[in-house]
Design goal:
By secondary structure, the chain is of the alpha/beta class. The chain is built from 15 helices and eight strands. The protein has two domains: about 170 residues, 3-Layer(aba) Sandwich (Rossmann fold); about 200 residues, Up-down Bundle (Dehydroquinate synthase-like, alpha domain). A hairpin with a 4-residue loop joins strand 6 and strand 7. The radius of gyration is 20 Å and the shape is globular. The mean pLDDT is about 95. Bound molecules: nicotinamide-adenine-dinucleotide (NAD) and zinc ion. The site of nicotinamide-adenine-dinucleotide has 36 residues, from helix 2, helix 5, strand 6, helix 7 and helix 9.
Length: about 375
């Protein structure tokens, strides 16, 4: 077995109602000044209020003017808003956008480096404030990862800042947080989570540790995403999605996403297509392109998710996973073409160029992508 490592949050609470554990965490950490990060959508859904009530015994401040899929300037603005305030605990209540901003604040507030310094060299990062992550979508797995993604408008793309110190200290996986999540967001964030586990399992960086989380995450997500999308009251399916998404995040820290996420970044950066949607559009096409290099891995994933197909051939099992990916995207009514977002054939050159620069993730892909390969994949989704 090759050497491997997995960095995970210190304490993970899961189960309906576990949001109340925040009170215990405040005691353990002896926190007196708490900063709650959220956004208007999450606050409007009444989810921040629950956390505010728990924090009412101490001093707390809420920052809710975060934009979805934040850019460098958005993060700089909220960090400036915090100023010199004394903070001993940060709570991120939201989707990946909020959690990424919270994680960045935990390493930038009180530091002698800036976000722009981190974009050049994330190895300088140090955590200054402990964090609690409360995901309210079932997708990014940011509550488990050491990554934060920021949009870079001048490059019309996105960049990940990666450092182990960003791993959250506490995670709260409470299904009540996604009880009223609009089906459209269940779909896009759920497919994002599915992409995490499938990409991590087929990644060159996959290890025996990340495989365990990727396989179990895939089983949970493939079997529950349609139920969670179609039936708002299916809390069991939603719980499975929430844990599956978390496992996806853990798999990312042990392995890494690949060409789906790499080619997705320019779509988010330039056309502002939601992260989960741009991944969904590319997902089955990238896996079909990769198939000859990872058929055995896709077949192993099929064995884990659909054991009833164990007698099928490797190729049939790999095909099954790819067609199920396409089926899930279709069944959850996510767009399947870039045309719907105003992307034109004349944008192809930009996309190929920008996609090929996502080398951090492209190197993980089981198959090397030439510029022509990248063009071929983008053309498939035009
Ligand atoms: N750090 C990581 O490991 C990682 C991994 C993947 C993606 N990301 C990043 O995460 C971001 C995307 O995060 P996301 O997909 O979770 O979406 P998001 O955080 O951008 O939220 C999408 C929308 O859903 C709303 N929303 C969230 N929860 C809600 C709820 N329970 N009820 C009603 N509305 C709700 C928000 O207000 C927002 O308008 C992107 O910037 C992406 O690059 C980070
Ligand atoms: Zn993702």
């Amino acid at each position: 077995m090759k050497q491997c490592q997995l960095t995970v949050p210190s304490v993970i609470h899961a189960g309906q109602g576990c949001i109340n554990q925040i009170s215990e965490i405040i005691n353990i950490e002896q926190a007196k000044n708490i900063l709650i990060f959220t956004d208007k959508g999450v606050r409007g859904a009444g989810l921040c209020e629950t956390v505010e009530k728990i924090c009412a015994t101490v001093s707390y401040k809420v920052i809710d003017d975060l934009t979805a899929e934040p850019a460098v300037a958005d993060i700089e603005r909220v960090i400036a808003e915090i100023g010199e305030a004394k903070i001993d605990l940060i709570i991120g209540v939201g989707g990946g956008s909020v959690m990424d901003a919270s994680k960045l604040a935990s390493i930038i507030v009180g530091a002698d480096y800036t976000l722009r310094d981190l974009l050049k060299d994330s190895s300088i990062a140090k955590k200054h404030i402990k964090t609690i992550m409360v995901p309210t979508t079932c997708g990014t797995g940011s509550e488990a990862t050491c990554n934060a993604i920021v949009a870079i408008p001048e490059q019309e793309s996105k960049q990940g800042i990666v450092n182990n110190c960003m791993i959250p200290d506490y995670v709260i996986l409470d299904v009540n947080m996604i009880a009223k999540l609009p089906p459209k967001i269940i779909a896009s964030t759920g497919v994002d989570a599915l992409a995490h586990v499938v990409e991590c399992f087929t990644s060159k960086k996959a290890t025996v540790l990340s495989d365990t989380y990727a396989k179990e995450g895939a089983r949970k997500i493939f079997h529950n995403i349609r139920k969670a999308y179609n039936n708002a009251d299916d809390m069991e399916a939603k719980s499975e999605m929430m844990v599956g998404a978390f496992y996806g995040g853990v798999a990312i820290t042990g392995s890494g996403t690949t060409a789906v996420h790499a080619l997705s970044y320019p779509l988010g950066g330039k056309y502002h297509i939601a992260h989960g949607v741009s991944n969904a559009i590319l997902f089955a096409h990238v896996m079909a392109f990769n198939k000859d290099a990872c058929a055995d891995r896709l077949a192993q994933l099929c064995d884990a998710v659909y054991p009833e197909l164990s007698s099928k051939s490797i190729d049939e099992k790999a095909e099954h996973i790819i067609s199920e990916i396409a089926e899930v995207v279709k069944a959850t009514n996510i767009p399947i073409s870039l045309k719907e977002f105003g992307v034109k054939d004349s944008d192809l050159d930009f996309l190929v160029q920008a996609g090929s620069q996502q080398t951090r993730l492209l190197v993980n892909n089981c198959k090397k992508l030439s510029l022509d390969d990248i063009r071929y994949i983008y053309k498939k989704v035009m």
